[in-house]
Amino acid sequence: MIQVTESPAAGTATTAGARAHAREQHGRTADTMRFVPAATAPAHLTAGLPAGAIAALSWAESLAFGRYTTMNLARGTRIRLTDTQGDACVHALLYRAGALHERLNIADTVKVPWQAYPGAGHPLLSDAGRLMATIVADSSTRHDALTGATTLEGNTARYGAGTAHSASPAARELLTLGALKSGLGPRDVAPSLSLFKGVSVGPSGSITFTGSAGPGAAVELLLQMDAVLVLANTAHPLDPRTDFTGTAVDIVAWHSPQDLAALEAGTLNGPLAPEHLQALHNTEHDLTARNAR
């Protein structure tokens, strides 16, 4: 990760000069940033989106390595993350909007669908047995729901630093900052799902780091409920490299409520497994009960 500090611009010693300089920056873009409104995102971020998706965009961002982001997203939102350069590692947490005590439960996300390796069609379950989201597309297949996130202590021992604003921030430190934006704290940062860096489990139970699928791999999530998504793009705890290194991830999200019906009907990713369908019904039953109040 490279940070660049610009020298103070000439003429900014006065309030009027500083204001003029600040206003000159309006409209400038950087390689990694959030685009507001989302429809102003460059073409490389929105390339390949389905017809009508650009008009329904709610989020467009290129997230630098060593940084975090968070967004409150509506039910029926589809999120695409792309490992453009092939060396991103995105640690993800989900919280239910309006009921933040309900959040992604990685243990159940692995245990309930009988699958330790997340991929297309995999449900992401809450600690209440409800379906928070589904992985509806995946060209990476290199993800990790087993080893968790890097820590301050681990990064300090490995890279010499691990605080959120250091040159080698740990995932838990960054996820904590993201959680704080929604009024949560360190104890609310549960085990996360890692995207774009995979692991495999051997017959003896040993875990082997399998790395990245390479440039251009993408994964898409479909939200089954209103949710707060927190992402940290930083090193994987089993990455064998001694240097803290990685690349940006591109993020776009658009409202696609028709996909919810297609998912339930089995026409989006094929018929849902019984466990996946039951979790979906748990979510829908709860939403119906809430809306009836």
Q: How is the secondary structure organized here?
A:
Layout: H1 15-24, H2 43-46, E1 57-63, E2 67-73, E3 77-83, E4 90-96, H3 106-111, E5 123-125, E6 131-138, E7 143-144, H4 152-159, H5 171-180, E8 193-195, E9 198-201, E10 207-211, E11 217-223, E12 227-233, E13 249-255, H6 258-265, H7 274-291
Structural features, described:
There is one protein chain. Helix content is 22%, strand content 25%. It has 293 residues and is an alpha+beta fold.
Keywords:
293 residues, alpha+beta, 5-stranded antiparallel sheet, 22% helix
Roughly how much helix do the residues carry, as a percent range? 10-25%
Question: Strand-and-helix sequence, N→C?
Answer: HHEEEEHEEEHHEEEEEEHH
Strand coverage percent: 25-35%
Q: Specify Rg, calculated over alpha carbons.
A: 20 Å
SSE class: alpha+beta
Q: pLDDT below 50 for ≥5 consecutive residues: which ranges? A: 1-5
Kindly give the count of domains: 1
Average predicted confidence as pLDDT: 94
For the record, give the distance between the C-alpha atoms at the N and C termini, rounded to a whole number.
50 Å
Shape: globular
Give me the number of helical elements: 7
- Tally of strands: 13
Question: Biggest sheet, open or closed, and with what strands and sense?
Answer: 6 strands, antiparallel
Which strand order spans the largest sheet, edge to edge or round the barrel?
1-13-3-11-6-5
